[in-house]
Design brief:
single chain; Complement Module, domain 1; rod-shaped; VWFC domain-containing protein
Length: 106
């Protein structure tokens, strides 16, 4: 019985490796695509950069979201991932004081 279990296990492992595209344990899968260990990719729709590391994916936000600004400033949206604070009286002049956080995970 013991020998039979080893044979069944060996055949099962061989079948799984052949039936699926064998992915090294350090690589990642994201939206059905294989991401190699150490590679990174941008998720522009979420303003995030993600990286595959030893089988796991970690992401962090990029861009700038204004959370507070002076009374004489306003927020201007530059693109999906970037906002700037400018003076109301002169939009080409950056606001001298504001607070911002990364745009990712809005």
């Amino acid at each position: 019985m013991n020998g039979t279990m080893y044979v069944v296990f060996a055949v099962l492992v061989a079948y799984v490796r052949c039936a699926t595209h064998y992915i090294p344990q350090t690589d990642c899968v994201y939206n059905g695509a294989i991401v190699k260990d150490g590679d990174q990719f941008d998720r522009i729709e979420n303003c995030e950069t993600c990286q595959c590391y030893k089988g796991g994916i970690s992401c962090y936000g990029f861009g700038q979201h204004i959370v507070d600004h002076r009374y004489d400033c306003k927020i201007v949206k530059v693109d999906n991932c970037w906002e700037e604070a400018v003076l109301v009286s002169e939009e080409s002049t950056p606001c001298p004081s504001f607070s911002a956080v990364p745009m990712g995970r809005k």
